[in-house]
Design a protein that fits this description.
The longest helix is centred in the N-terminal third of the chain and has 8 residues, at about 10-15. The chain has a 3-stranded antiparallel sheet, with no helix packed on it. A hairpin with a 2-residue loop joins strand 1 and strand 2 (about 30). Helices cover about 20% and strands about 20% of the residues. It has helices spanning about 10-15, 60; strands at about 20-25, 30, 45. About 5% of the residues are buried. It has about 60 residues and is an alpha+beta fold. The protein is elongated, with a radius of gyration of 16 Å. It has one domain: Beta-grasp domain (Ubiquitin-like (UB roll), Roll), CATH 3.10.20.
Length: about 60
């Protein structure tokens, strides 16, 4: 896929990758969605999940 001149967000849309669940790494470093890609860039997507902690302090009640 030709990536020159497109943004990380464009690539995410084309690949069906959600920015709500994935972080883009460009050349091994986190990249914002508005990062312009250049020839030779290596792009990887890391999927993450957020888990609610079991137990602990309820910050909404303490603040």
């Amino acid at each position: 896929m030709k990536v020159q001149g497109i943004l990380v967000s464009d690539l995410m849309k084309r690949m069906g990758v959600s920015p709500l669940t994935h972080i883009a790494l460009v050349n091994g470093r986190p990249a914002p969605e508005d990062y312009p890609l250049k020839p030779g860039d290596v792009v990887r997507f890391i999927m993450f999940t957020v888990h609610k902690e079991m137990g602990g302090v309820d910050l909404e009640k303490t603040l």
